[in-house]
# Entry
Amino acid sequence: MTTVPASWYVVLGILLFTIGALGVLVRRNLIIVFMAIELMLNAVNLVFVAFARQQQAMDGQVMVFFVMTVAAAEAAVGLAIILAVFRNRETVNADEVNLLRW
Amino acid sequence: MTTLAFPDVAWLPLLPLMVIGATALLVLVADLFSEGPDYDALGWLGLIGLIVAAVCAALLWNQSGSTLAGTLVLDRYGLFFTILFAVGSGLTLLLSMNYLETTDIRSGDYYTLLLFSTVGMVLMATSVDLIVIFLGLEVMSIAAYALAGIWRTQVRSNEAALKYFILGAFASGFLLLGIALLFGASGETLLPRIGEVAATGTGEQRLLVTIGAALLLVGFGFKVAAAPFHSWAPDVYEGAPTAVTAFMAAGIKAAAFAAFVRVFVDSLGPLAGDWRGALWILAVLTMTVGNVSALVQRNIKRLLAYSSIAHAGYLLVGMVAGGENGNAAVLFYLAVYTFMTVGAFAVVIALGRRGQPHEDLDDWAGVGLRSPFLGFAMTVFMLSLAGVPPLAGFMGKFYLFSAALEAGYVWLTVIAVVNSLVSVYYYVGVLVKMYMAEGGVEAEATSARPYLFAALVATLAGTFLLGLFPTPWFEIARRSVESLI
# Structure
């Protein structure tokens, strides 16, 4: 079995986080933006697990459960908000949601 | 009979938190049995719960301890903020009871969300574990996202909630990555242990801690609306229901600062040399951007949003100064700011009517002469925000800036003072409009809205009290930060 240093996972996590952050800034479809935020949170989860392994500390694994729960709660509220916007504006494009100056 | 082991938990430190949490659940259940459209009873229930929590926190003042594996502590710092949040949320509840009548928000959930958000705030201020601080932040924020968008039929409320949610969740991501790196450096999430690693760690550990601290700075910067992470604040403040805006400006900002100061002083104190410089720049940018942008605003809520950004800048000045005086000044100013900003938003609410929010500054023309009490209240709040003696805002700024001067930040103090002079222009501009222009709207008599009247009287009293007799209150703030350093 090939083994890799734990730091590779950390680097992968940070790369995924960067992709997620760029997605939030670049994409205009609100659902995609929301998915990019989820990617950021899950990238951090990967970093947590890798560090937990490296440090032999369970706190990191436990943290992942909390983050997953928080992400679920955020998804519930976030999708409800996007739905409310869609009902009133019939769009999920961030550029068309412009009543207040962005 | 089967018995189960009951965990040995010290309940005392959890008391205020549990009171607010229980009240929130009680309101949630009571909502099932209340027939709309009048939800004042739920507001009263929440108010009583907050008062009980504040009294509990005050009674615990001389106690100390920790609970739940050391993640939650009972110290004066946490108690100070618990009382402050109870006051801020209580005032918001008072505002809301009359405000909701003028909106289409017909649901008791409003009060439940407000109380749950307060629970998150108390968690943030009383915890010394990064996991719990993050959880508190999310409990507070997720409830606040829903609150911002609770006026579902209004497009502006939808948009405000959307922007608040997207940028808030984005900021949480950065904060979380910062926490992950601090954990990676130390294998710990408890603040004191991370502090040890920051002080004595190897080069690699210190590098991770430094990058982690920078990410935390970005995350907290978003939450307190510090420039250049402030762009969401004006839109969200303008679009959210006014009572919720007051809650965001007072409560949520204070909670973010509570965790911000605790994490950076308690845990990252050994790196202070590194982050002081970054905070210096952030403070100058935040003050300047806030004040200069406020100069050209025509919408009162937007103006107060930029003013709120500027005030985050003043608070950062106190954090840069640090030490007992600097941190105590931050706490004192947060208390002062709660009263004056909630008061200003109360006047905004008093001027609005059903379907006519009257948020444009032109609507305010002549209001001061037609409604003397509202005029007087707004004069007090605007002058206090501008920092005119003998009001609370002046004493708050005096403590902040003198702490910065003592710590040797002469230029920072000069920039801060110049900024507060600039701010006088737009605060007085509102008053000029209210007293010297003609043709605005007629405000409803305040006597017709008893809760709003009570909130105005309470915030006025707070603004005068903290301004005329600041010493004992500043002493309390100083005692509160003793446990920190």
In short: Chain B touches chain A at residues 131, 134-135, 138, 142, 145-146, 149, 152-153, 155-156, 158-163, 165-166, 169-170, 172-174, 176-177, 179-181, 183-184, 186-189, 231, 234-235, 238-239 (CB under 8 Å). The mean pLDDT of chain B is 91. The first strand of chain B starts at residue 65 and ends at 67.
